[in-house]
Design goal:
60 strands, Complement Module, domain 1, elongated
């Protein structure tokens, strides 16, 4: 390009310019200004552009002015002007046109109308960037996490709702016991002379030494609209070290661990102390491995006990399934182990089961299974009932009758099993052992006893006052009576009927009469003995006649016979044979021979015979002297006759 092209004509001035062009460098021109942003009008330049190599350039000092369409404005007004200074525009980008905001949201409850950071623009709208500041009435503030302003940006406020005004809180409630100071997340405000705190303020509680808030319990309360939320935490005593681990156990680990917030041997409430055992030992099934601190005391005074574990339970028997465990196994050194208290339950194949009364469970204790061998599976029995009434011990629960199961049969009313017939069978290796009993009709009570008979006794207990087949009624008689020899003393029940419909008769009898006394002969009886069921006896009315040897007789007035009367001879002694007396002593002078009572049958007199002496007239037995003598077992008493002295009589 030539200098003359820029000037455009030839004149003295142009020549001067040309000369200056070659002496001083030209002032740089600015390229076209940054294009307007959206919602902007076309930029307005203060000078006409110079076209250089097909593009617009502007002389130094040229200004460009940007304006926005209606309803839009820049953050600081409605137009922005920038200058071209030595080839560079004052901005590298056109200013942005933002939408205008209407009035900010009206204040909320307990709030004042907002205060704007700048006056409204045309039409009462606000430029983007305008700040609306909200203030609350006395005793109210915004939340600590919420500002009290809204900002206008590109036609809308940061929120459609104004900041909310909350009533302030007084001081947080204090912990009554063992507490430290309360720490607040915000400073206090003095309202009406009292300390107050904004909604959202957090009050953190602290405890005195050796006390703390329980694990998991928040030690804070938050102010919300005049109220502190939650409840005031308690400062609880801390625990010392947990109980020492048992033998074969490792020291406990703590959760949360003592991380410097507490003394090394001090733990807050709800701290857990978890124990572990060394290999081949574990805690008993169901025993917790953890103790918990609460209010200064651990939940147990002793650590959980480490017990020896068991290897796998004994394998199942023939016809059995592998045992089922009630807990997961532990893997120790590559082997499956089971905790003490673990049970292994055994089951059998179809048609097999454990014997009745045999436990299907083995239990791990002290490192071994109790018992040491697995229970045996034995073939089950089929149902033996076939419609009969039968119960089972143990009760049948799974449709199978186990080995050693006892089947006990019962009969319907008025039927029973015969005496001596078993009422049960037992299952043995799949077979019912013992014949199946048959029900037979029962008998009523046996016929009543005869006169002088005792009630019958039975060889079996009655069933509802009735007796089973095979029952025997035994009859006996009262004392002094016996059953006839040709009649048995029993009757039996068979198929509902007694073998006799009347009871046997009791006969009155006596045994042998009393043995004769010394000097006596064996008695003779007026009737012969009869044979009874109990032996030989004499019937009632039999007479035993006693006699004495020579020179002996029964005493005066003593009978020589005993009579059987309903089993009793009347005495247990035979009449006594006594020696007979010769004649009484001769009479004295002046007396007559004695008179005997009773009169003698022979020259000898029975014991008890009395000899009476009489004196002649004018004579009498002395006063106080008996005039009689008595025979007693061969002798007279006295040995001499009484004397009859003269004049010894009364007028």
């Amino acid at each position: 390009m030539k200098a003359s092209d820029e000037i455009g004509n030839e004149s003295p001035v142009s020549n001067l310019v040309i000369l200056r062009f070659f002496i001083e460098p030209p002032i740089p021109k600015c390229p076209d200004a940054p294009p307007p942003s959206p919602n902007s009008r076309t930029a307005v330049f203060s000078s006409t552009p110079v076209v250089i190599t097909g593009t617009n350039h502007y002389n130094n000092g040229t200004t460009v002015t940007y304006t926005c369409h209606d309803g839009f404005a820049f953050t600081d007004g409605f137009s922005q002007t920038y200058s071209c200074i030595f080839g560079v525009w004052e901005t590298t980008s056109a200013p942005v046109c933002y939408g205008l905001c209407p009035r900010a949201p009206a204040e909320g409850m307990n709030g004042h109308p907002p205060i704007y950071s700048q006056s409204p623009a045309l039409g009462g709208k606000y430029l983007s960037g305008t700040i609306a500041q909200y203030n609350c009435m006395e005793g109210y503030t915004t939340h600590v996490d919420d500002g009290n302003t809204l900002v206008c940006f590109d036609g809308s406020w940061a929120s459609n709702n104004p900041p909310q005004c909350w009533e302030v809180c007084n001081n947080a409630p204090a912990i009554i016991d063992n507490s430290g100071p309360i720490l607040y997340s915000t400073g206090a405000m003095i309202i009406s002379g009292s300390e107050s705190y904004r909604t959202g303020t957090v009050a953190s509680y602290t405890c005195a030494a050796s006390f703390s808030v329980a694990v998991g319990v928040t030690n804070t309360r938050t102010c919300h609209d005049v109220t502190w939320n939650a409840t005031t935490p308690l400062c609880l005593p801390e625990c010392g070290e947990a109980p020492t681990a048992s033998a074969y156990g490792n020291p406990p680990s703590y959760n949360p661990s003592n991380d410097g917030m507490y003394m090394l041997t001090s733990y807050p409430s709800e701290t857990n102390a978890t124990y572990q055992c060394i290999d081949d030992f574990a805690f008993h099934l169901g025993v917790a491995d953890t103790l918990t601190c609460y209010a200064g005391v651990w939940s147990a005074t002793h650590a959980p006990l480490c017990e020896a574990v068991c290897s796998s339970a004994p394998p199942s028997s023939t016809h059995g399934h592998p045992p089922l465990y009630n807990s997961q196994h532990l893997v120790m050194n590559g082997d499956n182990k089971y905790m003490a208290g673990t049970t292994a339950t055994y089951t059998c194949n179809t048609n097999y089961a454990l014997s009745a009364g045999v436990s299907d469970v083995l239990t791990c204790a002290h490192g071994s299974w109790l018992q040491h061998t697995s229970p045996q599976c034995v073939q089950v029995c089929s149902n033996p009932s076939n419609g009969t009434r039968v119960s089972f011990n143990p009760p049948q629960t799974d449709g199978r009758f186990r080995n050693a199961t006892i089947a006990t049969y019962t009969c319907t009313t008025d039927y029973a099993f015969p005496v001596g017939v078993g009422e049960s069978q037992i299952c043995s290796s799949g077979v019912w052992v013992g014949g199946k009993p048959q029900c037979q009709p029962v008998c009523e009570v046996a016929p009543p006893t005869s006169t002088h008979g005792l009630p019958p006794t039975y060889n079996s207990q009655p069933i509802n006052n009735k007796y089973r087949s095979g029952s025997v009624a035994v009859y006996n008689c009262r004392e002094g009576y016996k059953l006839a020899v040709n009649v048995g003393n029993t009757i039996s029940c068979g198929n509902g009927v007694w073998s006799m419909n009347i009871s046997p008769t009791c006969l009155p009898v006596c045994g042998d009469p009393p043995t004769p006394s010394s000097n006596g002969n064996q008695p003779t009886l007026n009737v012969a003995q009869v044979q009874t069921l109990g032996g030989w006896y004499y019937i009632s009315g039999s007479v035993a006649i006693y006699t004495c040897t020579t020179y002996h007789s029964f005493a005066v007035g003593v009978g020589s016979t005993l009579t059987c009367n309903a089993g009793n001879w009347g005495t247990d002694r035979a009449p006594r044979c006594l020696e007979m007396c010769m004649d009484a002593p001769g009479h004295s002078s002046h007396s007559s021979p004695p008179i005997y009572t009773p009169s003698p049958m022979t020259v000898r007199h029975k014991s008890g015979t009395i000899a009476l002496y009489h004196c002649e007239a004018g004579y009498a037995v002395a006063v106080g002297v008996s005039d009689t003598l008595t025979c007693n077992d061969g002798r007279w008493f006295a040995p001499m006759a009484p004397l009859c002295p003269a004049g010894n009589y009364s007028s």
